[in-house]
Please model this.
Amino acid sequence: MLELAVLALLSESPMHGYELRKRLNAVLGTFHRFSYGSLYPCLRRLQNEGFVTADDSSAAARLGGRARVVYTLTGEGKERLAELLGEGGPSSWEDEMFGVRFAFFSKTDAAVRLRILEGRRGRLEERREKVRSALTRTRERVDSYTLELQRHGLESVEREVRWLTELIETERAQAEFPGTGSPGTGSPGTGSPGTGSPGTGSPGEPRPGPPSASA
Model:
């Protein structure tokens, strides 16, 4: 998860660790908070694997009289990023990973985006049925506050399912009729994520993150 986010951000420009951490929290703060304790071991591993280089000798790295190590994506790192972005299997549908994948949809192929969205919706539909079943079984055995909490969880899941359905419909329409409003352009009334045109890496207009589906 962190590997994908770091490589994706470094593909935009070289950064030093402090700047990278700020960008990570700005892009993914809704889903995760990253600390130096997790970031720097990840950067060292990526450096050891040849995916990034670290340079503290350039004048650009010196801020306020202090040398800062600047991390740059290598050719091998670009290939690794493309490999990670091409994955759309079950792990990308789960709570832990979906938000990270969605944050970088502008860098993801349209077919992979659609596969992730459909997989995520299917996962939440399964969760929705489990919550409904639990409500039916326990309605008479729990107090009113527990019941309200369960209802809140169900409403959260249903809200995200509707949101995903809008995104899926927009992706399919764009695939069928190119030029009618990309999910990455933030076209009004499309329910699009506003994450940039497919495959271009352009940022597009910001869109609120996915509704919470924690039950």
